[in-house]
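Quiz preparation item.
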């Protein structure tokens, strides 16, 4: 199993992550999209339980890595770009039953893939940044998303985004600090540094998962943490 992480993530986070994976790929891009999200995997790749879709202009270093490790993937239709609409194409979230996005924003390849799932139309175009799903339970730092989840009667945990670190902005998003594999939910930092951390740790435990804090400092929004395996 391999992990893909923002190259700019704290060194301690990356070092601790190496204990749980066979190899770590440190992702970065240059002059493709906004600097704040240029190293975020969730801007260039969409992943659900059975599929991995890559933006066609994903830096060749990552594509070469996936090919070398025999990871199965396909390319989406549209490239990532420098405006908002072109930076959110792959930043959506899918569970076994639901597809979370701002309607019409995802790449057409993802819309087709998820067409049989129940669409949950949220106001935030950066869906994967702003939320994370454990089965059909949602962790989010966006109050607009909370309103939608309440309306459709979905269970959620709200995590205040204050002090989530991100490049070039005051606060990041909780989804961008999380990755999961098997029964472990990994965080790019220490949730217990946050006011909602202890409650989130308990909530994850009630879902039968273990929260793994990869650092000692405040959470870092690095566009999520993605785990991939060979074919």
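Solution:
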């Amino acid at each position: 199993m391999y992990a893909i992480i923002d190259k700019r993530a704290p060194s301690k986070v990356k070092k601790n992550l190496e204990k749980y994976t066979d190899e770590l790929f440190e992702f970065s891009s240059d002059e493709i999209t906004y600097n704040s999200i240029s190293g975020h995997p969730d801007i260039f790749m969409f992943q659900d339980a059975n599929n991995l879709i890559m933006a066609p202009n994903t830096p060749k270093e990552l594509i070469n890595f996936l090919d070398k490790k025999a990871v199965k993937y396909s390319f989406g239709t549209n490239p990532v770009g420098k405006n908002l609409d072109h930076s959110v194409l792959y930043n959506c979230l899918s569970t076994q039953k639901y597809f979370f996005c701002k309607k019409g924003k995802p790449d057409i390849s993802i819309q087709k893939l998820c067409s049989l799932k129940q669409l949950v139309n949220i106001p935030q175009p950066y869906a994967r940044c702003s939320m994370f799903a454990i089965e059909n339970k949602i962790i989010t730092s966006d109050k607009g998303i909370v309103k939608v989840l309440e309306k459709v009667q979905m269970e959620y945990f709200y995590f205040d985004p204050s002090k989530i670190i991100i490049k070039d902005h005051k606060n990041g998003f909780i989804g961008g600090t999380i990755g999961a594999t098997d029964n472990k939910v990994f965080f790019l930092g220490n949730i217990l540094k946050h006011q909602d951390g202890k409650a989130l740790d308990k909530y994850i435990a009630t879902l039968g998962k273990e929260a793994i804090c990869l650092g000692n400092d405040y959470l870092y929004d690095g566009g999520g943490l993605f785990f991939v395996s060979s074919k």
